[in-house]
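Could someone model zinc ion with this protein?
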Amino acid sequence: MTKLIYMDDSYAQECDAKVEGVVEYNDEGDDSHLVGIILDSTVFYPRGGGQPCDTGKLIDLKTNEEFNVVQVKKENGKVVHYVDKIGLKIGDTVHCKIDWERRYTFMRYHTASHVIAGMFNSDTGAQITGNQIGLDKTRFDFSLENFDKSLLEKEVEKANSYFGTDVPVSIFYMPRDEALNIPGMVKLANALPPNIETLRIVKIGTDDNIIDIQADGGTHVNNLKEVPKVEIIKLENKGKNNKRVYFRFVEQN
Ligand SMILES: [Zn+2]
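Reply:
Sure, complex below.
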């Protein structure tokens, strides 16, 4: 089992690791030939939960040769790092380095989307049905019949009152049955695989004021101080009960 460093330390940007598997892979739809590398530990986040994968480099510690990591996916329970050329072999040791600026943007957007979703859920009961975190904007979908722009703006204003202020974000683990008894824990409809017994929980806020709490596998910042204020780009109707909202940071960086 690969040690997933990002699960407990989302600020880890580098680590050393040993190559445990090499798989060749032909990316469908284009001619590029990628090589999949399985490591004994990693700082690379694989695509999942609406958060894109990390990119970065694997550096062969013996030859100093650099391999660009262009894609990271979880396949059959294993994190596979797709690099752009052959050369790494089982038993090699590598230095892993993620593209930190990209990851940190995802962390801030991911945490921001939990805060906004938390506002929506507690004020309107809306279920979040999907999300896509990006580098210059993020969207999420929610199901709610009666909804207008002024209500949306009110929720975003509330979220903005927390961004840039000292509010802790904590990560811990909980037995599934216990976790599912907490109201609002599963906002993303059908997001949980049925066979996981221990859930990783992301809590934003203090016990006196929980802004959002949910089962989640993504990477987050430690404090809302690090999250800039947001603005709505647009609100779309995707059907009777389905709405899609796009937001971005007012100040980039
Ligand atoms: Zn999330």
